Task: structure prediction
Amino acid sequence: MFKSLNTAATGMIAQQSNIDVVANNIANVDTAGFKKSRAEFEDLIYSNQKDPGQASGLNSITPTGVQTGLGVRTASIQKDFTGGQTKMTNNPLDFQIEGNGFFQVRTPDGEIAYTRDGAFRKDASGRVVDKNGNALIPELTIPETATVIEATPAGEVRVIHQAGAEPEVIGQLEIATFINPAGLKSMGKNLFTPTVASGQAATARPGTQGAGFVAQNQLETSNVNIVDEMINMITAQRAYETNSKVVQTSDQMLQTAVNVK
Result:
């Protein structure tokens, strides 16, 4: 059987993965703090009929050899942690990290997860939580009497109880950074968890030790560029179609060989 049948099939499978990644990026174009992904590919093992440098005569060697590639596979799907655009919300519990780092939240199972989505709110007891009810770490509780909430770029959170009163400091935001954020594991719900590849989190006050500053009343939008994703989708579609044409051509050549009398 022609090698090209299986080779083209691996190309079709790879482009299916590519389209899956592009589709997820496009679907999350309006997701706050979302980071787009990129599929990366690598070629498979080669069929070596003649190795480069192999002796071809008494005093000569072949300069290139004869090597036939056997296809492609998805090597990795990597997150791109470049910053998104800024969206003004005028919500005092909306925070954006201007620079590197993640907010920390505690999940229902007691684990710490990390997110770039700074859309927070109060629960029934005044605790600051994300949209899924995960408590922000370090915990912040907004007093019922608070009329104004302020957060400095360095992460100090203060409230004012009445007009003319002095601000009261109620907590300090912390930012977690990773040596290799691309190694984080995506858990859905805008959350990440650390892995051996990402390394452990290092926490710091905003603006120190490489952590970004905090901006209040605004959110980081998705870093998906819809035009780029449309181009990627068209490219993947054409590559898939071309690989399918290779399958058809190989089938026709095989049929011709079978019909030879």
Observations:
- The longest strand covers residues 72-79.
- The chain has two helices and 20 strands.
